[in-house]
Amino acid sequence: MRGCAPFDKGPSRLPYGPPQLSAALTKVKVVAENRRARYEYAIDDVFEAGIVLQGTEVKALRAGEGSIADSYAEVRGGEVWLVNANIPEFSHGNRFNHEPKRPRKLLLKAREISKFHGAIARKGMTLVPLSIFFNDRNRAKVELALAKGKQLHDKRAATKEREWQRDKARLMRDKG
Protein backbone atom coordinates (compact mmCIF):
# COMPACT_ATOMS: atom_id res chain seq x y z
CA MET A 1 0.00 0.00 0.00
CA ARG A 2 3.05 2.20 0.35
CA GLY A 3 3.40 4.73 -2.47
CA CYS A 4 -0.25 4.49 -3.61
CA ALA A 5 -2.33 7.61 -3.88
CA PRO A 6 -5.63 7.62 -1.92
CA PHE A 7 -7.67 7.71 -5.12
CA ASP A 8 -5.84 4.77 -6.65
CA LYS A 9 -8.04 2.02 -5.19
CA GLY A 10 -9.72 0.85 -8.39
CA PRO A 11 -12.77 1.77 -10.40
CA SER A 12 -15.21 1.61 -7.46
CA ARG A 13 -13.75 4.78 -5.97
CA LEU A 14 -14.18 7.01 -9.02
CA PRO A 15 -15.75 10.40 -8.27
CA TYR A 16 -18.25 10.00 -11.10
CA GLY A 17 -20.83 7.37 -11.97
CA PRO A 18 -21.04 4.99 -14.89
CA PRO A 19 -21.19 6.54 -18.35
CA GLN A 20 -24.72 7.41 -19.39
CA LEU A 21 -25.96 6.08 -22.70
CA SER A 22 -27.51 8.55 -25.08
CA ALA A 23 -31.03 8.07 -26.44
CA ALA A 24 -29.66 7.00 -29.82
CA LEU A 25 -27.74 4.11 -28.28
CA THR A 26 -30.72 2.66 -26.41
CA LYS A 27 -32.98 2.33 -29.45
CA VAL A 28 -33.58 -1.34 -30.06
CA LYS A 29 -36.42 -1.46 -32.57
CA VAL A 30 -37.58 1.61 -34.49
CA VAL A 31 -41.25 1.22 -35.38
CA ALA A 32 -42.15 4.50 -37.06
CA GLU A 33 -39.90 7.28 -38.27
CA ASN A 34 -40.74 10.80 -39.43
CA ARG A 35 -38.06 11.17 -42.10
CA ARG A 36 -39.58 14.36 -43.49
CA ALA A 37 -39.21 16.21 -40.17
CA ARG A 38 -35.49 16.87 -40.57
CA TYR A 39 -36.16 18.39 -44.00
CA GLU A 40 -39.16 20.51 -42.96
CA TYR A 41 -37.84 21.71 -39.57
CA ALA A 42 -34.62 23.00 -38.04
CA ILE A 43 -34.19 20.66 -35.05
CA ASP A 44 -33.13 22.40 -31.83
CA ASP A 45 -33.44 19.97 -28.89
CA VAL A 46 -34.29 16.26 -28.90
CA PHE A 47 -36.05 14.54 -25.99
CA GLU A 48 -37.13 10.99 -25.26
CA ALA A 49 -40.66 10.64 -23.88
CA GLY A 50 -42.73 7.72 -22.75
CA ILE A 51 -46.13 7.20 -24.33
CA VAL A 52 -49.38 5.97 -22.79
CA LEU A 53 -50.74 3.13 -24.94
CA GLN A 54 -53.52 0.57 -24.74
CA GLY A 55 -52.77 -3.13 -25.08
CA THR A 56 -53.81 -3.47 -28.71
CA GLU A 57 -51.75 -0.40 -29.62
CA VAL A 58 -48.62 -2.01 -28.20
CA LYS A 59 -49.32 -5.20 -30.15
CA ALA A 60 -49.82 -3.23 -33.37
CA LEU A 61 -46.55 -1.34 -32.80
CA ARG A 62 -44.68 -4.58 -32.10
CA ALA A 63 -45.99 -5.88 -35.43
CA GLY A 64 -44.27 -2.89 -37.07
CA GLU A 65 -47.40 -0.93 -37.91
CA GLY A 66 -47.74 2.78 -37.23
CA SER A 67 -47.10 6.14 -38.83
CA ILE A 68 -46.17 9.55 -37.43
CA ALA A 69 -45.71 11.32 -40.77
CA ASP A 70 -48.43 13.96 -40.21
CA SER A 71 -48.34 14.05 -36.43
CA TYR A 72 -47.29 16.72 -33.96
CA ALA A 73 -47.28 17.21 -30.20
CA GLU A 74 -48.99 19.95 -28.22
CA VAL A 75 -49.07 21.14 -24.62
CA ARG A 76 -52.60 21.07 -23.20
CA GLY A 77 -53.41 21.61 -19.53
CA GLY A 78 -49.87 21.02 -18.31
CA GLU A 79 -49.58 17.74 -20.27
CA VAL A 80 -48.08 16.91 -23.64
CA TRP A 81 -50.22 15.04 -26.18
CA LEU A 82 -49.23 13.32 -29.41
CA VAL A 83 -51.85 14.27 -31.98
CA ASN A 84 -52.66 12.66 -35.34
CA ALA A 85 -50.32 9.68 -34.96
CA ASN A 86 -51.77 6.69 -36.77
CA ILE A 87 -51.50 3.30 -35.07
CA PRO A 88 -53.87 1.06 -37.04
CA GLU A 89 -56.19 -1.37 -35.29
CA PHE A 90 -54.61 -4.65 -34.26
CA SER A 91 -55.62 -7.37 -36.73
CA HIS A 92 -56.41 -9.94 -34.01
CA GLY A 93 -58.06 -7.43 -31.69
CA ASN A 94 -61.67 -7.78 -30.62
CA ARG A 95 -64.41 -5.25 -29.98
CA PHE A 96 -62.17 -3.50 -27.43
CA ASN A 97 -59.71 -2.46 -30.14
CA HIS A 98 -58.39 1.11 -30.03
CA GLU A 99 -59.11 4.15 -32.21
CA PRO A 100 -56.31 4.54 -34.79
CA LYS A 101 -55.83 8.34 -34.58
CA ARG A 102 -56.70 9.11 -30.98
CA PRO A 103 -54.53 11.64 -29.07
CA ARG A 104 -51.97 9.88 -26.87
CA LYS A 105 -50.44 11.29 -23.72
CA LEU A 106 -46.66 11.64 -23.57
CA LEU A 107 -44.81 11.14 -20.29
CA LEU A 108 -42.30 13.89 -19.54
CA LYS A 109 -40.93 15.66 -16.49
CA ALA A 110 -42.65 18.88 -15.38
CA ARG A 111 -39.48 20.86 -16.07
CA GLU A 112 -39.39 19.63 -19.69
CA ILE A 113 -43.08 20.41 -20.17
CA SER A 114 -42.62 23.96 -18.91
CA LYS A 115 -39.62 24.35 -21.23
CA PHE A 116 -41.76 23.21 -24.17
CA HIS A 117 -44.59 25.52 -23.21
CA GLY A 118 -42.26 28.53 -22.98
CA ALA A 119 -40.52 27.79 -26.29
CA ILE A 120 -43.80 27.31 -28.13
CA ALA A 121 -45.36 30.49 -26.69
CA ARG A 122 -42.35 32.81 -26.99
CA LYS A 123 -40.24 31.55 -29.88
CA GLY A 124 -42.92 30.09 -32.15
CA MET A 125 -41.41 26.62 -32.09
CA THR A 126 -43.15 23.30 -32.69
CA LEU A 127 -42.98 19.87 -31.05
CA VAL A 128 -42.32 17.31 -33.75
CA PRO A 129 -42.10 13.54 -33.17
CA LEU A 130 -39.06 12.07 -34.93
CA SER A 131 -39.59 8.38 -34.21
CA ILE A 132 -41.42 5.78 -32.15
CA PHE A 133 -39.21 2.98 -30.89
CA PHE A 134 -38.86 0.30 -28.25
CA ASN A 135 -35.89 0.78 -25.91
CA ASP A 136 -33.70 -1.88 -24.36
CA ARG A 137 -36.27 -2.44 -21.58
CA ASN A 138 -39.03 -3.05 -24.19
CA ARG A 139 -40.85 0.19 -23.41
CA ALA A 140 -42.42 2.20 -26.22
CA LYS A 141 -40.81 5.64 -26.46
CA VAL A 142 -41.22 8.69 -28.67
CA GLU A 143 -38.25 10.77 -29.79
CA LEU A 144 -39.59 14.31 -29.64
CA ALA A 145 -37.86 17.40 -31.05
CA LEU A 146 -38.29 21.08 -30.32
CA ALA A 147 -38.04 22.55 -33.82
CA LYS A 148 -38.63 25.65 -35.89
CA GLY A 149 -40.10 25.47 -39.39
CA LYS A 150 -37.71 26.08 -42.28
CA GLN A 151 -38.41 28.62 -44.99
CA LEU A 152 -38.20 27.62 -48.66
CA HIS A 153 -34.73 29.14 -49.10
CA ASP A 154 -33.47 27.17 -46.07
CA LYS A 155 -34.72 23.94 -47.64
CA ARG A 156 -32.99 24.81 -50.91
CA ALA A 157 -29.72 25.51 -49.09
CA ALA A 158 -29.96 22.20 -47.23
CA THR A 159 -30.57 20.33 -50.51
CA LYS A 160 -27.64 22.12 -52.16
CA GLU A 161 -25.34 21.26 -49.22
CA ARG A 162 -26.43 17.61 -49.24
CA GLU A 163 -25.79 17.32 -52.99
CA TRP A 164 -22.37 18.94 -52.61
CA GLN A 165 -21.42 16.47 -49.85
CA ARG A 166 -22.53 13.59 -52.08
CA ASP A 167 -20.52 14.92 -55.05
CA LYS A 168 -17.48 15.55 -52.85
CA ALA A 169 -17.59 11.99 -51.52
CA ARG A 170 -17.91 10.67 -55.08
CA LEU A 171 -14.89 12.73 -56.24
CA MET A 172 -12.77 11.57 -53.30
CA ARG A 173 -13.74 7.95 -53.91
CA ASP A 174 -12.86 8.18 -57.63
CA LYS A 175 -9.53 9.93 -56.96
CA GLY A 176 -8.33 7.72 -54.14
UniProtKB/TrEMBL annotation:
One CC-aspect GO term: cytosol
Family: Belongs to the SmpB family.
HAMAP family found in the cross-reference section: SmpB
Subcellular location: Cytoplasm
Protein name, as recorded: SsrA-binding protein
Domain of life from the UniProt record: Bacteria
Gene Ontology annotations of biological process type: trans-translation; trans-translation-dependent protein tagging
Any one Gene Ontology molecular-function term assigned to this protein's record: RNA binding
Gene: smpB
